[in-house]
Design brief:
The complex is a heterodimer of chains A (about 525) and B (about 450).
Chain A (H helix, E strand, L loop, with lengths): L2 H13 L3 E2 L13 E7 L7 E7 L6 E4 L6 H23 L2 E9 L6 E9 L5 E3 L2 H15 L18 H14 L8 E3 H8 E2 L10 H8 L7 H10 L18 H23 L4 H41 L7 H20 L11 H25 L1 H9 L3 E10 L13 E6 L10 E6 L2 E10 L7 E6 L20 E5 L47
Parallel strand pairs in A: 2-7, 7-8
Antiparallel strand pairs in A: 1-9, 2-3, 3-4, 5-6, 10-11, 10-15, 11-14, 12-13, 13-14
Helix pairs in contact in A: 2-4, 3-4, 5-9, 6-7, 8-9, 11-12
Chain B lengths: L10 H18 L4 E5 L6 H14 L4 E5 L2 H14 L5 E4 L17 E4 L10 E5 H4 L8 E6 L7 H7 L3 E8 L26 H8 L5 E3 L2 E2 L7 H8 L6 E2 L7 E4 L7 H12 L1 E6 L9 H16 L2 E4 L7 E2 L5 E5 L2 H13 L6 E4 H4 L4 E7 L10 H4 L1 H7 L3 E10 L2 H7 L17 H12 L3 E3 L3
Parallel strand pairs in B: 1-7, 1-8, 2-5, 2-6, 3-4, 3-5, 6-7, 9-10, 12-18, 12-19, 15-16, 15-17, 17-18
Antiparallel strand pairs in B: 11-13, 13-14
Helix pairs in contact in B: 1-2, 2-3, 5-6, 7-15, 8-9, 9-10
The chains are: A alpha+beta (about 525), B alpha/beta (about 450).
Chain lengths: ~525, ~450
């Protein structure tokens, strides 16, 4: 944790309210996000209990699996979910704008610009907490390899038509969410903690109710008290007043309310199946419907508070103006969305169970680059974030006290003005350390020359080295003037693209050779050899 | 080289045997790769230079992959020192000042940003990052990968297509490579891109010959057993020198202060622990930082002289023979400014990551866990402590707040166990305890 966020947390404790750690909103928020509040069944991985889902805060769709262990009912739930999510996704797939992308020409091997479609906007999924993102991934993984009756008419238990497609999309959202700064799939708790620091720990911040209590406590109550109430307060029946944001449910709810309701449903279903005539069946169908309604009511009662909390959190975030670079990152999300749309249209198979060596390395490289880019962009967009970097010695701000014109040596001398900056910050500068400032949105580089005065003092001499035009005299406005307030960073503002990795088909021997070769993934696929300890 | 140690162990002969076996496998073996584990100061660079010269002499075009520009330049200089006639290519980036200016004085070293300009030279050297941009060239018959344990698997993936066979050399005890984003997604995969290059290489090619250099020429007899036991429990090594072969003495006697007493203890025993009162502090603990600076100041002021097997006469302990190691960059910056206040500007102060591969007579270490309220995976990483505790030829002074033992007991390792990932032994928790237990015998309490 950085020093400034520690300070913000301490301040939150002493004031009883969350403290802002950002002055702008660092993530793009869609005009029409799709909010998903899922619940899962305790002890059954990948068995949804229900969900509230939709784009209209006043009219969420309630989906419920009355008997979560019944796979037909689970498929019905997933099919319903697909009927909501896929039209939402599709509504962004068709609206495109023209864009340019550089591709390698297969014939010449040269990089050429090609005109391609870029979706003008992209869908955005919001879940309450980080475990919601994991749940989206789990759903994606459980669905994308399913076969429909159309694909495999002979196979038993076919999946409903659009379920595998939903699995592919949820997998894509889940993977994209691992890219720093991306906004296709966001957890509200992550969004809120990016912008506010509370007086509780990071793990406690994953409780949406407690987190909102710190940020926006009711009335005059302190965040501490409100958060404690959100976590612990129960009604006369022993049920939490603020149910957990899921997907896990509270055991008291499971035991006291859900289990009896499901039992009642199971009994009604068995009774219906055993009905001897139409009249009796009608009667018993009524019982079954009532039992199902009971479970629906229970699921809604646990998801609706979270649903409302998510929208309240979004309101709080919308009060902040969007950071300047958030749109740039959203454009990358749109590229990602467009790319996946194209893969599906092209009939490519679903994402593989595991990445191959080259894909994994490419993903890691992308994410590292995006992380560095995000860190730089957030600091440039937000003086409060920059303050944290300054406090950490990674940037400094101050006033220009002197500018001396100088030139580089060589045949064509270029301007290399020496700029003295007075700063109260204590940047970690060494000889010839590169520093950067933003000049019209582009980074201008300078070198640290030394201190004017004592070592480690407050007068820094910098040599500006670029962005001054081609002439002998620097272009107007490209060199800071005496009295200007400037802010330089020790980190770069933009990230270079890394080296291109080989094609997966050219995976070298050090990494097991090309995938598809059954020998390629040796160890994890095979069971351990039996040892003496295995035999009692 | 040193005489046969009293135990009958001949370090020179043991090292020669190991080197011969490595060169035999490299030059005449049939395997595509050879892996060499080298403990700190075991002559890894010497081995790389020797292997390069022998491969070049055998007429095999060779590429060398190192991890940083400093390592590349150092290797070029060492090669030129051994054989000034050898045609060497230094492939470099197009940034400003891409290589050490000293290379300009070497007539047989050609420098270029393009691999094509260096084609046909006996040896071409660059960083893994630069090699990754080289495309469409005839693969080299042979490569040497230096610091292979600090190279990430994805970096090897980018360059492995450039060579047919390779010698991988590195120190498994030093800091593992890291990623700035989470990579748990791939944990347990044999080609986890965030793992070390050697881990991936051996997962896919378990049959490759693996060698080990058995003797540390850097670490003194006082340090090798501790470093070996704490960080290399299953692959022990010895020091090349014996007790009494090296000596550190000071012209100016101790003034009785904490720094002076710990200097004397370290000069005598090879280790010294300057213990400050227990306290939770910010990372740049001002008292600990000042104590580090004072120890360095006194080391310089007291007219130190180092006697070793390298020369007959004692060599003065000058600023360039001393280094300060920390865990974090802000700590290094704080120590640097504290030193500047005491008028010391030419002592190297850096983090463990940047001190890897370097060697000094005396090191002063700010203990990574000093003053901390918690012991995170970063601070417990075995390699971090190993780097800091294995840079010295004579003595190492550790500055630390009291209470680290209790801190360790309060924070057993809690990292999730990943299936398919080889558990690294020893873990940082155990290694830290081992080092602290040893340091406790050389403790000097100090009140700032």
């Amino acid at each position: 944790m950085s020093l400034i966020s520690t300070l913000a947390r301490l301040e939150a404790i002493s004031t009883g309210r969350a403290q802002p750690v950002a002055t702008v909103r660092h993530r793009h928020l869609s005009e029409r996000p799709l909010v998903l509040v899922p619940l899962t069944t305790a002890g059954e991985a990948g068995a949804p209990l229900g969900a509230l889902v939709g784009t209209d805060r006043d009219a969420p769709r309630l989906l419920v699996v009355p008997q979560p262990r019944d796979r037909d009912l689970r498929f019905a739930f997933l099919a319903e979910l697909a009927d909501i999510v896929l039209p939402y996704v599709d509504s962004y797939a068709d609206v495109v704008e023209a864009a340019e992308r550089s591709e390698t020409d297969p014939e010449t091997g040269k990089r050429v610009k090609v005109e391609v479609d870029l979706c003008a906007d992209a869908p955005q999924l919001i879940v309450p907490s980080r475990s919601g993102i994991d749940f989206v991934r789990l759903l994606g993984r459980s669905m994308r390899f399913r076969r429909t009756a159309e694909q495999e008419p002979e196979a038993p238990h076919p999946a409903p038509p659009r379920v595998p497609l939903l699995g592919r999309w949820l997998t894509h959202f889940g993977e994209r969410a691992r890219v720093p700064g991306s906004s296709l799939l966001l957890a509200l708790t992550d969004l809120l903690t990016r912008h506010w620091a509370t007086g509780q720990s990071g793990v406690e911040d994953q409780h949406l109710g407690a987190l909102l209590a710190w940020i926006d406590p009711p009335g005059d109550e302190s965040g501490d008290t409100a958060a404690r109430r959100a976590e612990l307060a129960r009604d006369a029946d022993g049920q939490l007043l603020c149910p957990p944001a899921g997907p896990a449910t509270d055991p008291a709810f499971d035991n006291k309310l859900l289990a009896p309701a499901i039992e009642r449903y199971d009994r009604a279903r068995a009774a219906l199946a055993a009905a001897e005539d139409g009249l009796q069946a009608d009667d018993r169908l009524g019982d079954l419907t009532a039992a199902e309604r009971g479970i629906r009511g229970l699921v809604e009662s646990r998801t609706r508070p979270t649903w409302d909390a998510v929208w309240r959190g979004l309101d709080l975030l919308r009060e902040l103006p969007e950071g300047a670079h958030a749109a740039d990152r959203w454009t990358r999300d749109r590229w990602s969305f467009t790319g996946h749309r194209d893969r599906i249209i092209a009939g490519e198979p679903p994402q593989p169970r595991r990445d191959d060596a080259v894909t994994a390395a490419n993903k890691l490289a992308t994410r590292e680059r995006e992380q560095a880019r995000l860190d730089a962009q957030e600091a440039l967009d937000d003086p409060l974030v920059m303050a944290g970097r300054r406090l950490a010695g990674e940037a400094f701000a101050g006033e220009v006290t002197d500018v001396v014109m100088a030139y580089s040596e060589g045949k064509r001398p270029s301007p290399r003005p020496l700029v003295t900056v007075h700063t109260e910050d204590r940047p970690h500068l060494g000889e010839r350390t590169k520093v950067y400032r933003s000049l019209g949105g582009k980074p201008q580089a300078a070198e640290f020359v030394g201190y004017d005065g004592p070592e480690g003092g407050d007068l820094l001499v910098l040599r500006i080295v670029d962005k001054m035009g081609r002439g002998k005299e620097p272009e107007q406005g490209s060199v800071p003037e005496k009295g200007d307030l400037v802010c330089f960073t020790l980190f770069e503002h933009d990230q270079r693209a890394g080296a291109k990795l080989p094609d997966p088909d050219d995976t070298p021997w050090t990494h097991g050779g090309p995938p598809g070769d059954p020998e390629a993934v040796p160890l994890p696929e095979q069971p351990d050899p039996v040892t003496e300890e295995d035999v009692l | 080289m040193t005489a046969v140690a009293s135990s009958g162990f001949d370090p020179g002969a043991a090292a020669t045997r190991a080197t011969d076996a490595i060169l035999r496998d490299t030059l005449h073996g049939t395997d595509r790769g050879v892996v060499v584990d080298s403990p700190p100061g075991a002559g890894k660079s010497t081995l790389v230079v020797r292997a390069a010269l022998e491969l070049a002499a055998a007429g095999r075009p060779l590429m060398i992959i190192a991890q940083t520009n400093a390592q590349v330049d150092d290797l070029v200089l060492r090669l030129a020192e051994k054989d000034s006639e050898l045609p060497v290519g230094r492939l470099h980036s197009s940034d400003a000042d891409p290589y050490d200016k000293a290379l300009d004085d070497l007539p047989n070293v050609r420098k270029s940003t393009r691999a094509a300009d260096l084609a046909g030279l006996d040896v071409v050297i660059s960083t893994a990052a630069k090699w990754a941009h080289v495309k469409d060239v005839e693969p080299w018959r042979h490569a040497i990968v230096d610091e292979a344990y600090q190279m990430r698997s994805d970096a090897l993936l980018a360059v492995a297509g450039l060579f047919e066979r390779a010698l991988f050399v590195g120190d498994p005890g030093q800091l593992d490579p890291f990623a700035i984003v989470g990579s748990e997604q791939w944990a347990g995969l044999s080609y986890d891109p965030s793992a070390s290059a050697v881990t991936t290489l051996l997962a896919h090619n378990p049959e490759l010959p693996q060698h080990r250099l058995p003797v540390s020429w850097r670490l003194p007899a006082s340090a090798a057993p501790l470093v070996s036991d704490a960080f290399y429990p299953f692959t022990p090594f010895r020091s090349g020198t014996d007790h009494g072969d090296r000596r550190l003495s000071f012209a100016v006697p101790s003034d009785g202060s904490g720094p002076d007493r710990v200097i004397d203890e370290a000069a005598e025993a090879g280790w010294g622990l300057l213990e400050l009162p227990a306290r939770h502090t910010p990372r740049t603990d001002p008292e600990a930082v000042r104590a580090v600076a004072q120890v360095v100041r006194r080391l310089l002021d007291r007219g130190g002289a180092a006697t070793s097997e390298r020369s007959d006469e004692p060599v003065p302990l000058t600023a360039d023979r001393i280094a300060v190691g920390t865990a974090h960059r802000d700590q290094a910056a704080a120590v640097r400014s504290a030193l500047a206040n005491l008028g010391v500007t030419d002592v190297v102060v850096d983090t463990a990551n940047r001190l890897q591969g370097r060697e000094y007579d005396v090191t002063v270490v700010l203990h990574p866990l000093s003053g901390r309220p918690d012991a995170t995976a970063f601070h417990l990483e075995t390699g971090r402590l190993c780097v800091l505790a294995s840079r010295h030829r004579h003595a190492c002074v550790v500055v630390c707040r009291a209470g680290v033992t209790e801190l360790l007991d309060d924070h057993p390792s809690t990292e999730p166990v990943q299936l398919g990932v080889t558990v690294k032994f020893p873990d940082g928790w155990e290694a830290n305890h081992a080092v602290l237990a040893h340091l406790a015998e050389h403790r000097v309490a100090s009140r700032p």
